[in-house]
Amino acid sequence: WLFAGNEGGAKRLADVLSLVSTADAAGVDAGRYLPSVIAAVDTWPNKRIDELLPRAWKAAFETMLRQQTRE
Fold it and tell me: Which of 1, 19, 41, 65 has the most CB atoms at less than 10 Å from its CB?
């Protein structure tokens, strides 16, 4: 946490690293996952926030890719 700048920065860094680790454990490419979730989370309904977790996101992303390859 030495290079986080301050305590708030360290907490934000810990949140991001937690998301990256969770994505990695779910077999999700964090480079695709994080930008997608960051773009969606601001307007995403709170009652559906679990759909943005890595395992659910991966299933939805794979379904989208299959549909695109059929077209």
Answer: 19
